[in-house]
Amino acid sequence: MKYLAHCPRQLWLYATGYRPEHRSDTVSFGEALDATTYTRRRDVDLGEARIDWVTTGARVHETKSSRRPSPQHAAHVRHYCLLLARLGVNVAGGVVHYPLIRRTTTVEWNAQARREAEETEQRALEVIAADQPAPRLPRSHCRGCSYRDYCWGDQ
Per-residue b/e over 66-88, b at no fewer than 16 CB within 10 Å? Predict the structure, then answer.
């Protein structure tokens, strides 16, 4: 869901199997931060998604390496809440953790949040089902993106 919010082209490329993340310093940094922060927590693997951790009362927790909270991060957590709700879990909401700035944000889970998550999921499915990727975003939006070389490498 974060790819949809950031760049529909990135979502389409990821869904069709192009995955350059292993060459990205930004992705490596995020993985290292995740591996060394909140180490007493365990991932929750849903097969199609991996939640950083879920606490008692079914509160979803995600760790982000960003220094700035983003609506994309809340959408990501709402998607996880939706997946858990579909499994019959009575989800309480979520928390996004930003260890670099020692801050958290709360993500509500209610009927409106569920509608937003379902609408976002539908938009993602439409992007994935397209015959070709969405147009490139302006180059200035691509800083730090692991797909930048694919989209802008010939320029």
Answer: eeeebeebbbbbbbbbbbbeeee
